[in-house]
Amino acid sequence: MDLIFSTVFILVIAVIFAGTFLHFVPIGLWISALAADVHVGIFTLIGMRMRRVPPSKIVMPLIKANKAGLDVNVNQLEAHYLAGGNVDKVVDALIASQRAQIVLPFERSAAIDLAGRDVLEAVQMSVNPKVIETPIVSAVAKNGIELKIKARVTVRANIDRLVGGAGEPTVIARVGEGIVTTVGSSESHTDVLESPDDISKTVLGKGLDAGTAFEILSIDIADVDVGRNIGAQLQTDQAEADKRIAQAKAEERRAMAVAKEQEMKAYTQEMEAKVVEAQAEVPHAMAQALKEGKLGVMDYYNLMNLQSDTEMRNAISRSGREAKNIPVTQK
Q: Are 152 and 146 within 8 A, CB to CB?
């Protein structure tokens, strides 16, 4: 019984030891590297395990690079992996660049990958240029007619400017700006419609790819549509604004006239009140003059006769005017 227990215990210990050994010493990967004529020491693989670097992430790209004739070593690939890079994609980019006869050192490829760009896609774009379609760009010619233009920009990746160079949004923005400037300098929208390739030539000659990660190969105008008459609309809006200003000024003048009229009415009423008040004082003044002897009785009678004569004349004049307005009936 003790012998069986001891045998089982030894087998368990052996299995645990073998599993631990195979975990830290990837024998199968080491044999694959030797079969591919890639010399990777067994202690190097153990060191990768200790540094928490999966050996397959380094050895398999190394085998691929060695078969392609690239001059890379384990330390370069492991350092790039520890820096957060994609080792497999970098090696694929190096192989693609070698096949396309594009000069791309490992350090530059690693830098492009660590900068967050897809280095393999960049190499493929260097071989096979990419077409970028711009959104609809609205531009207005000098005659006020709006044109809606869509362009296709053919670009090729510039390997030397991938690190620090601007991306596709900058290229699209610059092309849109060039289209707006070119159309805006045209005397008429018909000039643009007659020769849209002039836009491509003008925009392409501005060197819009400076400071970007791309090289612009061509700019093709895909579509041109006639939009609104912006000039007429602006004139209409200006006329409407002028009308409102004129109405406001007229309303202001009317309000001032009404206020002036109210002021004159108040002044007239005030003067009439003063006249009535003065007329009310006349009898008292005459009585005072008679009492003080400043006005004689005959003078008073003459004044009264003059006043009666004036009233009689006024009455006759009014009756004459009223008689002229009465129709005469023939019997």
A: no
Q: What is the DSSP letter of 137?
A: E
- Exposure string over 260-294, b if 16+ CB within 10 A, otherwise e: eeeeeeeeeeeeeeeeeeeeeeeeeebeeeeeeee
Distances (CA, A) of 56 to 30, 52, 246: 10, 12, 83
Phi then psi for 25, rounded to 5 degrees? -120, 95
* pTM for the model: 0.56
Place of tokens 């009229």: 261
Per-residue pLDDT of 240-291, as tens digits, reads: 888 888 888 888 888 888 888 888 888 888 888 887 777 777 777 777 777 7
Q: Please name the residue that has the structure tokens 């492009």.
A: 112
Model confidence pLDDT, tens digit, residues 205-249: 777 778 888 888 888 888 888 878 777 777 787 888 888 888 888
The burial class, CB within 10 Å (0-12 / 13-18 / 19+), for 40 is: buried
